[in-house]
Design brief:
4 strands; 3 helices; single chain; alpha+beta
Length: about 180
Amino acid sequence: MINLLPEKEIKIIKAEIKLKKVFILLNWMVIFLLIFWLFLFSFSIFLEKQKVIIENQILKKEDILKEFFAIESEIKNFNATLFNLNNFEKNKIIISSFFEEFLKITPKDVYFNSINIQKNENSQNPEILIQITGVAKNRETVYEFYNILKGKEEYEDVYFSPQSWFKREYPNFSLTFKFIQK
């Protein structure tokens, strides 16, 4: 095709075509940047919402953890209480059976001043160490009490102190023995 336009006009038209191409290219770049900005903006909104959702989940989990630790603490307290009750049950001294039997075999003329009861922790068998001080009507009553205790198999290592035998009338006695629980 033959172009009849003067050279100057052709340059102007070519310059206008280049300008239009640059303008179209700039328009496409602006549109691309605008779309990219919209994408980034919507992505930032999405991330903010995700951040809020994750923070809420973390708060819920922290509340659950606090509740869990509170329950764990309560369980530890209950376990400690149960442990203490179990130790108490193991270490308790059942003295009602001892007193019931002991008072039945005690002679009428024997009176007690003090009774000391201790559980022997070192023994394999459950035994109770008992120390009794008292007074009796006479030495024969103390001897009778001694023989009664020696004759029972629940009472071991029956020992009256030597001072228990000095006085004939109203002797003060000191008695120690072991009571074996069955």
